[in-house]
Amino acid sequence: MQRNRQRTRNELEYELLDTGIFDGDRYFDVFVEYAKAGPEDVLVQITAANRGPETAELHVLPTLCFRNDWSSWTAKPVEKPGLEQIEGLVGTRMIAATHPVLGVYYLYCDGDVPLLFTDNATDPTPENWTI
Question: For residue 51, which of 18, 69, 25, 22 has the smallest C-alpha distance?
């Protein structure tokens, strides 16, 4: 943003390509596709393509989260929802997402992938939020 402030109206905007990050064609294209079979059924397919000349590792972290309506600073706090790994079909990983009002939802992951669970509540003070 600072670079663009330094440019005049006659200069083009400083773009991602100008940074040199794509030099050598070492990057990944990540495609996220969504499909719905019903009002509460969502399929997400994530495809990553390595555009670089050699094999490279990529970590993809899809996120499943709840809106924080359980903290004491909310208008009507409810019971905190839970996420837990449960037994799934062979060749998949499965998460049960349980919310006291919304009910139980399931996340299925293809393959023997590691699952990461974290409580990302870092600053519960609303006046410090950036929206």
Answer: 25
Taking the C-alpha atoms of residue 9 and residue 71, their distance in angstroms, rounded to an integer, is 47
* pTM metric for this prediction: 0.65
pLDDT in tens, 36-59: 988 888 899 999 999 999 999 998
Closest CA to 68 of 83, 79, 58: 79
* Closest among 14, 11, 15, 126 to 73, alpha carbons compared: 126
Bridge partners of residue 44, in order along the sequence: 34
| Rounded distance between C-alpha atoms, residue 119 and residue 73, angstroms | 17
SS (H, E, C) the chain: CHHHHHCCCCCCCCCHHHHCCCHHHCCEEEEEEEEEEECCEEEEEEEEEECCCCCCCCCCCCCCCCCCCCCCCCCCCCCCCEEEEECCCCCEEEEEEEECCCEEEEEEEECCCCCCCCCCCCCCCHHHCCC
